[in-house]
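dude i think i finally got it to work??
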Amino acid sequence: MGFNCVRLTWPLDLMTNDTLALKITEVVSNLGQNGLMVILDNHLTHPGWCCSDNDLDAFFGYPNFDPVIWAKGLGKMATLFRNVTNVIGMSLRNEPRGTRDYPDLWFRFMPKGAEAVHAANPEVLVILSGIDFDTNLSFLRDRFFNVSFTDKLVFEQHWYSFSHEGGAWVKHNSNDICAKIIGEVNHNGGFLLDRGFPLILSEFGTDERGVDVSGNRYMNCLVAWAAEKDLDWAVWALTGDYYLRTGTKHMVETYGVLDATWKNVRNSTYLQKLSGIQHPFRGPGLQEKKLILHPHTGLCVTNNHSGNVPTLRLELCTKSEPSTFDPKEGILWINKMCVETPDVAGQKVKLGVGTKCSKLGQISATKMHLSFKTSNGLLLCLDVDERDNSIVANPCKCLTKDASCDPANQWFKVL
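look at this
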């Protein structure tokens, strides 16, 4: 499936029960034997389902969230895995929330948890959640986190379709709401990347049965943003079903990558979408490769060599040829050949050697529609023919205001 790391959730009670502690070491060991890294995520205090505002362990000082016991538990867990090389990080607490999730309390107690982990395990990454169900780290804009170490400090952020205005993805045009919410996500956490700090998108996902219109639209937007930022991430969830969840045995996890048998992929199209952001686009030891991602499919634009005339098609991003697009110039180059747009809707987009290069514009609020005008003034956009994944030109759709249609097939993210 292409994953290389597991965000393994654990309750604080685990560190007060030696038998259960032994079990988690067996799980981590097995993951390591299969080449998987592990991030240990302190998800809650007592075993159960998470999360709501009125949980008794929602935030520091709640009845079931004693900061002293929490810090001791983190230290014990860090000690347990001190010399286990596939444990690469510890997330201090999942989704701080509730009526008391004030930044002042966060600044008071989070450093103590961070120092407890660092003292017990100097090698492991220390990962910090924000407030408001880990959607908000904006309080770090003008006040920073003071600890005795900095070179292994990581922040995490969560983003679901329901993380913002209720029903936003069906009430508003996808271009308009995607651009608006990306602005909020960047303000609340993405800004840390611009300041040179690591940020993990440590939870996202949607109902993989394909029935959630909001979730489907949001995922296309999220994949585009994650690709642009070249983020590390963890999708919720691998789980096919639960032994016991909120009193129900074998409840199916509709967000799960695996089906209820734990043997098969629940939705191969969803997994294909994620494949577009599974490989880094840049970073240490990598030769930067500029690509154009189609977020809806998780594939990238490349040259189609199969016909007599070179055209464009979608391909796995790892197999796609490099592309170059300068928004000011408007010329899209694929491996030293430029795009030549057709003059009639429905035709395939060709590639040429440079004598008839077409000028493309990035329109709509997301800038993900690549458009051009025909000789008779018709506005067309690059689109995907789902029959063979070839790139064609069709009338631009769903550019703004109209919430009834979905522009995802015409979204192309220039990376």
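The longest helix spans residues 174-194.
im so relieved honestly
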